[in-house]
């Protein structure tokens, strides 16, 4: 209930309730400071959520050169194949991940200077709390990708189609509200197995 109330408050604060009725995304961002412990070396817990209309949904061959207008991207030209849902222990090119977003997935990315098992466990807990996906067979879902990304500016980023959450802390309440609001809300509401090229290299 608290999570639902938080998600509704976020929508009211930004005027998105009306926009959702029109099937559009209004650009904008908001920053707030939950009562959660910041991740070193940050001194304060800061969360910023950005909503931005899709810049493109075009497909190009896998491993083509891409230029995203924001990072991590929440839309844009992307590869014709998508990353399989699940957990990775090495970075995945965003050309694959953006296509996963287009299918309604949420990507949870993190940046750690050293090993960070507690942070990863906390992100797994957010995924588990979301529950099953009725669109997916059990062996195919849920539609999450948990992945490290050393190029992130922040320790944590959660990305859905047209929406981005970045944080200097792990705040399960606001992160869970973001996930619940935007999971499965993409142009292609599909749960079809993607590709996993991590064994041989995504773009050798």
Structure, described:
By secondary structure, the chain is an alpha/beta fold. The protein has one domain (2-182). It is built from 5 helices and 9 strands, in the order ααβββββαβαβββα. It has helices at 2-14, 16-21, 94-102, 117-130, 172-182; strands at 28-32, 47-51, 59-60, 78-79, 86-87, 106-110, 144-148, 156-160, 163-167. The chain has a 7-stranded mixed beta sheet with strand order 1-2-9-8-6-7-5, sandwiched between helices. A two-stranded parallel ribbon has the order 3-4. The chain is globular and about 40 Å long. The model is unreliable at 4-23 (pLDDT under 50).
Short description:
The protein has 204 residues and is of the alpha/beta class. The chain has helices at 2-14, 16-21, 94-102, 117-130, 172-182, and strands at 28-32, 47-51, 59-60, 78-79, 86-87, 106-110, 144-148, 156-160, 163-167.
Indicate the topology.
Layout: H1 2-14, H2 16-21, E1 28-32, E2 47-51, E3 59-60, E4 78-79, E5 86-87, H3 94-102, E6 106-110, H4 117-130, E7 144-148, E8 156-160, E9 163-167, H5 172-182
Parallel strand pairs: 3-4, 5-7, 6-7
Antiparallel strand pairs: 1-2, 2-9, 6-8, 8-9
Helix pairs in contact: 1-5, 4-5
Keyword list:
26% helix, 9 strands, two-stranded parallel ribbon, alpha/beta, 204 residues, globular, seven-stranded mixed sheet
Structure class: alpha/beta
Order of helices and strands: HHEEEEEHEHEEEH
Radius of gyration: 16 Å
Q: Please state roughly what percent of the residues sit in beta strands, choosing from under 5%, 5-15%, 15-25%, 25-35%, 35-45% or over 45%.
A: 15-25%
The stretches of 5 or more residues where confidence is low (pLDDT under 50) are 4-23
Overall mean confidence score, pLDDT: 89
How far is the first residue's CA from the last residue's CA? 46 Å
Order of the strands making up the biggest sheet: 1-2-9-8-6-7-5
Overall spatial form: globular
Name the helicity range: 25-40%
Query: What is the domain total for the residues?
Result: 1
Number of E-type strands: 9
Number of helices: 5
Sheet with the most strands?
A: 7 strands, mixed
């Amino acid at each position: 209930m608290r999570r639902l109330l938080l998600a509704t408050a976020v929508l009211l604060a930004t005027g998105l309730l009306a926009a959702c009725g029109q099937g559009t995304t209004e650009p904008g961002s908001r920053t707030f400071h939950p009562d959660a412990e910041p991740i070193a070396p940050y001194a304060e817990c800061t969360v910023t959520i950005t909503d931005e209309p899709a810049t493109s949904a075009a497909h190009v061959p896998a491993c083509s050169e891409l230029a995203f207008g924001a990072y991590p991207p929440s839309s844009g030209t992307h590869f014709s194949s998508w990353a399989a849902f699940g957990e990775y222990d090495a970075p995945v090119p965003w050309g694959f991940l953006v296509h996963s977003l287009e299918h309604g997935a949420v990507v949870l990315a993190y940046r750690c200077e050293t090993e960070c098992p507690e942070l990863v466990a906390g992100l797994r807990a957010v995924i588990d709390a979301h529950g099953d996906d009725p669109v997916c067979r059990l062996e195919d879902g849920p539609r999450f990708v948990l992945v490290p990304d050393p190029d992130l500016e922040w320790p944590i980023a959660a990305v859905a189609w047209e929406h981005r959450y970045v944080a200097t802390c792990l705040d399960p309440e606001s992160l869970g509200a973001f996930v619940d609001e935007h999971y499965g809300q993409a142009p292609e509401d599909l749960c079809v197995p993607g590709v996993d090229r991590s064994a041989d290299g995504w773009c050798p």
